[in-house]
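Could someone model FE2/S2 (inorganic) cluster with this protein?
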Amino acid sequence: MSDFEDKVRETLANPKNQGEMQDADSVGTVGSPDCGDMLRMWLKFKEENGKKVIDRASFQSFGCQTAIAVASMATEMLKGKTEEEARHLSAQELSGDLGALPPMKIHCGQLVEGALKSALDQSPAEEPAKAEDSNTLSNSMQQASGKIRIVKLEE
Ligand code: FES
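Reply:
Sure, complex below.
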């Protein structure tokens, strides 16, 4: 087993920040109908030293183990980042301590990156996400059929 696979397995033994965030400021949902996986990410912001930074992030996934492990790493890494800093994080960077994503797993990291960018695109000031607005992931998954790449799913 590769070092990467070992780290994925370790992360899955204790994934961080899994589950819906009731008081989130924004939420992003993407799907990859190529593999059938989906991921939703919630963000909560706070003011820190005059800047708006990410206070917390959480995720829910119908995804492969790599996507869950990357999302766990990413939601930890995002704490304290400004919107601009978060927007520039690549799938490889979001993988954190997992190390470089193998070629066959890059799209798994991109699913996490896509959910993050989708959440960042939803400005908290304009359109706060309310828990009652968040469809279940399974509902969104049904809307994803027919798409051929990682896409932002409209609520
Ligand atoms: Fe689809 Fe990993 S196989 S996200």
